[in-house]
């Protein structure tokens, strides 16, 4: 068996083409053009690259881009002033604060200051709380992007989560802590086990999983002997692997050993799988916010 590929790049491209049509439909109907803003503090190359990608996505689908870039030594008051500005800016439909922030800043306080209605990442405590409270009815507030990306990538390839045993590795808020409340909603109806560094005998959990979502940031931790034949494996975590030879360059690695492709039925590559989909679902959140403001997509 050789796993089929869940191609996040191609799927994200298709999603963005659909979003471009929806944005144009809003504008043609006389509604304001939606806008995505980013708040970047400092000059971390990885964060700069990620933010630049978000603005490329915005341009591709016709969103206005608003960029707020502060120096690494910006004060708490400086950042809070930008948050208040975006909360009150009608041109900003949704925005994200690029993480991690410099250590001298109170990251939790800054995140909690975001207007939940403009939370493009879907990770504001208010929005996560609404998700936890609501297993049955439609949700019109932003949903966490990476869990949405996992679901959408599978759905676009005809893979159904209903009744599936899903094992998630990693308890970070971006994936681990937020994916369970989403995919246990009745519309998806999966059973979820959340594992982490405190889990005893991780291998035994993985071996019974129909779907594995690896989001621990530990290089190649999911081995082929841990995977049930025919399972679907989504490689989400990224970690930096230092060069073993003098003068060599560090590389980025996913959580899944490449040999897992000989056991799984479907696998998402890393890079090129869930990552591009996460960015696509972030701009999806922004377009949906604009549509809801226009009264589109809401049950009347």
Strand sequence of the main sheet, in spatial order? 1-11-8-7-5-6
Structurally, the number of domains stands at 2
What share of residues are in beta strands? 15-25%
Beta strand count: 11
Oligomer: single chain
**Helix-strand pattern:** EHEHEHEHHHEHEHEEEEEH
Q: Name the CATH architecture of the largest domain.
A: 3-Layer(aba) Sandwich
Could you say which structural class the secondary elements and strand pairing correspond to? Answer: alpha/beta
Q: Which range best describes the helical content: under 10%, 10-25%, 25-40%, 40-55%, 55-70% or over 70%?
A: 25-40%
Mean pLDDT: 94
CATH superfamily of the largest domain: NAD(P)-binding Rossmann-like Domain
| CATH-derived topology of the largest domain | Rossmann fold
The CATH class of the largest domain is Alpha Beta
Q: Over the alpha carbons, how many angstroms does the gyration radius reach?
A: 19 Å
For the record, give the distance between the C-alpha atoms at the N and C termini, rounded to a whole number.
48 Å
Number of helices: 9
> Which residues sit in consecutive blocks of at least 5 with pLDDT less than 50?
none
What is the 3D form?
globular
Largest sheet: 6 strands, parallel
């Amino acid at each position: 068996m050789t796993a089929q590929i869940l191609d996040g790049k191609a799927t994200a491209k298709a999603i963005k083409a659909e979003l471009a049509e929806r944005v144009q439909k809003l504008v043609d109907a006389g509604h304001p053009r939606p806008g995505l803003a980013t708040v970047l503090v400092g000059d971390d190359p990885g964060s700069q690259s990620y933010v630049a990608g978000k603005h490329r996505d915005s341009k591709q689908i016709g969103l206005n881009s608003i960029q707020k870039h502060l120096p690494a030594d910006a004060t708490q008051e400086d950042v809070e002033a930008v948050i208040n500005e975006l909360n009150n800016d009608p041109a900003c439909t949704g925005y994200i604060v690029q993480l991690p922030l410099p250590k001298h800043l109170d990251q939790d306080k800054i995140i909690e200051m975001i207007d939940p209605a403009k939370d493009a990442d879907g990770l504001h405590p208010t929005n996560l709380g609404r998700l936890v409270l609501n297993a049955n009815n439609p949700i019109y507030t932003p949903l966490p992007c990476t869990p949405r990306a996992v679901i959408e990538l599978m759905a676009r390839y005809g893979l159904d989560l209903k009744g599936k045993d899903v094992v998630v590795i990693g308890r970070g808020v971006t994936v681990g802590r937020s994916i369970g409340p989403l995919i246990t909603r009745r519309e998806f109806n999966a059973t979820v086990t959340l594992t982490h560094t405190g889990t005893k005998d991780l291998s035994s959990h993985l071996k019974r999983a129909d779907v594995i979502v690896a989001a621990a940031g530990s290089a190649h931790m999911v081995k082929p002997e841990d995977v049930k034949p025919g399972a679907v494996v989504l490689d989400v975590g990224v970690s930096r692997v230092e060069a073993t030879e003098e003068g060599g360059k560090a590389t980025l690695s996913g959580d899944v050993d490449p040999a897992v492709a000989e056991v799984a039925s479907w696998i998402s590559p890393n890079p090129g799988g869930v990552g591009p989909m996460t960015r696509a679902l972030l701009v999806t959140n922004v377009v949906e916010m604009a549509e809801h403001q226009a009264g589109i997509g809401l049950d009347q």
